[in-house]
Amino acid sequence: MIACTKCGKVETIVKSGFVRGKQRLYCKDCELYFSVNPPNPSTNKKPHQTTIVDIAKTLGISPSTVSRALNNSQEINENTRNEVIRVANELDYRPNLLAQSLHRGETHTIGVVIPDIQRPFFAGVVAGIQKVASEAGYRVMICQSNESHNTETLNVQALMASRVDGLLISHTKETNSFEHIKLHLRKGIPIVHFDRVCDELETAKVIQEDFEGSFALVEHLIKQGCRRIAACAGPEDLLISQKRLNGYKAALQKYDLPIETDLIFHSSFKKEDSLNALNNWLELSQRPDGIFTVHYANAIEMIMSLKQKGIKIPDEIALAAFGDDLLASMIEPSLTVYNQFPFTVGQEAATILIDNIINKEIFVPFTKVIKGELIVRQSSNKI
C-alpha cells in the first residue's frame, strides 16, 4: 500500500494515471497529486497468462485504453502508448490470437485429417500443404485417423471445435459413412478431399491417375513378356483400390489376357496380407510371372520374401507397384513404380482449399487430377 507523502494516510489514495514512466497518485484528503515509481512487473508475475486487464491494473488505467494503445489507436497519446507497450513486454503479454480471430470471424487455420502420417505418401502430402499454407499466412492443424472411422470422426469434430477456416481430408479404409462431413458442408465449411475421396459429396477433390497409372504399370509388365499377372489390391470398398484394380483389368483385356480370380487378392495394406497373397500365388500349379500391387510397400515386402526364397526377379517374377518412395529406388532390385507426386497433391489441395475459403460464395467444386509418371526399374526390366 502507498501512503500520502503529506498526511501519511493510505485509505484516501487513488491512482490517477502516470507521468513520464511514474505512477501518478491523488490524495482525496489533502487534494495532493504526487508520483511514485510503478512496481516492477517482473518481480510479481502471475502464474497465469497475462491479459489486458493485468496491464490495466498495473498502470491504473482502463482495459479499453490498454487495448486501444496496443492496437495503435490514434485516440491514445504517444506517452501512454509507449508506457503500455513497456509494461506489456515486462509482463510477457501475448495476444490471444484465437479471440482476435473469432472477433474477425476467421482463424487463418486449416485442418488436415490423414489416415497414417508414417506413410511417406501422406508425409509428402502434408509437406506440400504446409508450404502453400505458410506462404498464404495460414496455420495448419494435423490429425491422424490411424485408419479408424471413429477416430476420423472425432478428429473432424475437434478441428471444427477449434474453428478452423477449412478442412482437408483423406478418408480411412474403414470409412463408408460420411455424415460427419455432410454436417459441416451444410454449415458452409470449405472442405477439400484428396487421395481417398468420396464421390457422393459435393466437394473439391484432388486425386491421382489411379486408373491410368495402374493400366500403365500392368501394360508395362505385359510388354516385358508377362502373361499371368497377379494383383495385390486394397480393400474392396475403398474407391482408389477399385479404380486401380479396374486399370489392371483393363490392361489385361486390351491384350486379350484372362482375368483370373485366383490371381486377385484384396488386402488391408498390411505386411501379413501381402505375404499371404504371395505364398498363395506361389502354391498355384501355375505361378504368376508378374505381380502388380496398388501400394508400393507391399511390393517391397514381396521382393524381400522372393529373394529369401531364391526366386529370381524379374526373370521368374517381375513386379511393379503404385506409388514411389526413396526405399523403392534403393532396394535390390529397385522397384518399378508409378509416381503419384504426393508433394504436388498437397500443394494443389491446399491451394484449392484456401481459394475456397476466400471465395466461398462463388466457389464451384471441381476435381483436379495430378498426373503421375511411370518409372521403370530393375524389378520389371526383363528386356
Could you please describe the fold and organization of this structure?
By secondary structure, the protein is α/β, with parallel strands linked by helices. The chain has 3 domains: 86 residues, 434 Repressor (Amino-terminal Domain) (Orthogonal Bundle); 130 residues, Rossmann fold, CATH 3.40.50.2300; 130 residues, Response regulator (Rossmann fold), CATH 3.40.50. The protein contains 13 helices and 15 strands. The strands form 3 sheets. It has a 6-stranded parallel sheet, sandwiched between helices. α12 links the parallel β12 and β13. α1 crosses α3, α5 packs parallel to α13 and α8 packs parallel to α9. The longest helix has 17 residues. It is elongated, with a radius of gyration of 32 Å. The relative contact order is 0.10. About 1% of the residues have low confidence. Keywords: DNA-binding, Transcription, Transcription regulation. InterPro entries: HTH_LacI, Lambda_DNA-bd_dom_sf, Peripla_BP/Lac1_sug-bd_dom, Peripla_BP_I. This is LacI family transcriptional regulator. GO terms for molecular function: DNA-binding transcription factor activity; transcription cis-regulatory region binding.
